[in-house]
Amino acid sequence: MRRAWRMLGWAVVVLLLCAGGLLLALPRVELASFVAGRASAALGRAVEIAGLRILPGRDITIDLSGLRIANIPGGSAPDMARLEKLSARISLPALLRGALVVRDAEMLGFTLLLEKDGEGRRNWRFGGDRRPVPGAKPASLPLVHALGLAGAEIVVRTSSGAALTTRIDRARLSSADPMLATLIEAEGAYNGAPITARVDAGPLAALREGRPLPVALHARSGDTTLEFEGTARDPLNADGVEGRLALAAPTPDALLGMAQAALPISLDVAVEGTVRRDGNLWRMEGIEGRLFEAPFTGALVEMNEGDAGQPDAITASLDFSRLDLNRILGPNRADRPGGADDSDLPLVVPERPDPRLDVRLGAGELAYARLDARDVRLVAVQHPGRIAVEELLLTAS
What we know:
Blueprint: H1 2-25, H2 32-43, E1 47-55, E2 59-70, E3 79-91, H3 92-96, E4 101-114, E5 143-144, E6 146-157, E7 163-174, E8 182-190, E9 193-201, H4 205-208, E10 213-221, E11 224-234, E12 239-249, H5 253-258, E13 269-278, E14 281-291, E15 294-304, E16 313-324, H6 325-329, E17 356-368, E18 371-383, E19 386-396
Parallel strand pairs: 4-5, 4-6, 16-17
Antiparallel strand pairs: 1-2, 2-3, 3-4, 6-7, 7-8, 8-9, 9-10, 10-11, 11-12, 12-13, 13-14, 14-15, 15-16, 17-18, 18-19
């Protein structure tokens, strides 16, 4: 019996020495190829890591460099994601309980491409393109106390091939308690238009439990502001969004910059309404706003993102108390015969319009060139190769 206890004691000593040696050696062990191989097998994509070292302790320190995750076959670029450098501290006690709690992390040089291939498969879904089960609980969602991000770029390529580019110069996520609230502050640009944004989010635990996340967003680009207050079921993909949105644009500069359009127009618009996004469908209802000093209302503005290779489709139903096209177009048409009062809209019929349009407009008063009209009603569509005016009613004076 005494011999058995002695052998057990020596076994414990050996195990402790081995564990101690492992702890001492682990920071010097290069784990990149091992982890990259396991990640490639789990994701079904090629994963490369240039360097990965782990320092154990009550908080595990991770230093990673040169991460690359391959894109799906047929994607527009070979890589879906790249990361130059990551340094993070993860709570070991929480990890032993099965929870991923990030004490703090810093990321540098992150690039992400989100797109679909020719068959509509999403590159951000691994192991096939199965849609998430409604109400499913993302138990693997980490709880983050602090996260810094610099030099990042996110490109969303639409089904029509357009690239929507978000550049993040600096961003910071902070939370004293992720079970209660999270704050995100960021500076960067969208399609070249500079933007600053602040997001006050509710408890990330809501997503872990399958509940919508409360979100309040304030964004500014130049003199244009955007406010949103509501919820999101999938905030990383801006999906399942529902709430009240308010936009104020005293000039068109920021909106045109984000749309990557160069139009010689003048604009002062404010609009708010209830917005909702479900998959490819964006919808805004209960619309109230003003164009210059004139109020307007709307029953619906809807955008349906097209399938692979197909254009987006926009449907709108708006009623203006006064629609002054001369004021929108006139200041930039002073060189035309007759000056600003001779404003004109060019009639261009694109073979492949993007987006396709289906609009229903009403105006109590209309000013266009030398035409002054009232009680205006217009129903028009823009489809491939044709612009059709299905209804036009007005009283001219």
